[in-house]
Amino acid sequence: MPDDLELVELGRLSLGDWLDLTERDPAAFGPSTASLIYRDKDRHLGLRSPDGRLAAVLGMTVAGIEIDGHEPFGVVGMGSLIVRRESRGRDLSGVLSRAARSRASQLGHDRAMLFCEPELVELHRRRGYALIDARVTVDQPGGRIEMPIPAMWRPIRPCEWPSGHVDVVGLPF
């Protein structure tokens, strides 16, 4: 953890903090998902600088998963990872990812899941996530859609990912 930053636990992120972090970029997470609607995250982990500004945040929420032929289960959905432009290159996303893994184990589910741009798959693989090699569908205001970006998962406790079409209950995270 960088000495100049403090790890803070936050609930929902304020609109002001969000706009400040994203620099009002409507495609802050990549062009392929800029038009999608995401669920609000219940909690965030942040790295706060001495001046009070957030340098980076990562959101977490619990989501339901349904896979044909298997009992429904919950996952800790990781999302909205963003690092302020001037703070990039310091592995702040890695610091937050490690802290989030620790917090996720307290939420009572066996698996964590995320969606990412294709160029970030290898980064998340190095952090212990595996690609979900099945179709993943989510809600959007106009109905169910197939997610246009890769979905990945990692165990929080020893377990496997069931095979089959993945239905995320509700909006993506």
End-to-end span in angstroms? 26 Å
Largest sheet: 10 strands, mixed
Shape: globular
- The SS-based structural class is alpha+beta
> Per DSSP, what share of the residues sits in E-state strands of 2 or more residues?
35-45%
Oligomeric composition of the shown chains: single chain
Total number of beta strands: 10
User: Which sequence of SSEs, written as H and E, runs from N to C?
Assistant: EHEEEHEHEEEEE
Radius of gyration (Å): 16 Å
Spans of at least 5 consecutive residues whose pLDDT stays below 50 are: none
Summarize model confidence as the mean pLDDT.
Answer: 93
Number of helices: 3
- Which bin fits the share of residues in helices? 10-25%
